[in-house]
Amino acid sequence: MSLFSLPPIPEIPVNGESDGYAVRRIFCVGRNYADHALEMGHQPDLEAPFYFTKAPAHLCLSGASVPYAPGTQDFHHEMELVVALGAPVFRGDRDTAQAAVYGYATGLDMTRRDRQQDGKDKRRPWDLGKDFEDAAVIGPITKAGDFGKVAKQEITLTVNGEVRQHARLDQLLHDIPAVIAHLSGYYHLAPGDLIYTGTPAGVGAVQAGDVLEGRIEGLDPVLLTLTDPE
After folding, report:
1. What is the C-alpha to C-alpha distance for residues 105 and 189, in angstroms, rounded to an integer?
2. Which part of the chain is the Fumarylacetoacetase-like C-terminal domain (predicted)?
3. I need a surface site. Which of 18, 95, 188, 206 has the fewest CB within 10 A?
4. Residue ranges of the domains in the chain?
5. Among 206, 198, 9, 20, residue whose Cα is nearest residue 103
């Protein structure tokens, strides 16, 4: 028995399956497109990826309407390919890493940019900027075999129908096997782990009333509507 009743573990719909994908952890790769690194004032880092995390409780399914985030005046969209793992991998190589992929989804890494900048300026963690309610938006998962190889698929984001972000998946600085293999050197990765793989250039502010739609060829879109702040 527990002292308090907690929400159930979040699950993501999977195309072709009646059961959902239960989420264990959420990892996010920072500055994984060269143009995005440059627009944020950094040189692209080819040596190794770096990461931050989001709590599974902060997952938000596509199609939701959520309030403009509290505590920010500079709320940003970041469109990403999300990888869902379906097998354990620890200290894996590229082949082991790729074999551990269960499926892919479209995702939004919503960001309180001003709070993230506070952390950078004061050499403090990014948690207030990255890890908050409804900050990890995700569409339905498509199984890896149905999606095929991550290659030159286009990744786009529109806000109220206007294109804000547009790139290709083969422009990732660190590709999917490299990210998983590297991350598995620090964690025992397992089914239920999600990896948001990084956003292209074009990130920017959104406002209450905006409708966001992110697309990746071969995957279901991710949709989000922002309502007035609470």
Report:
1. 18
2. 26-219
3. 18
4. 11-227
5. 20
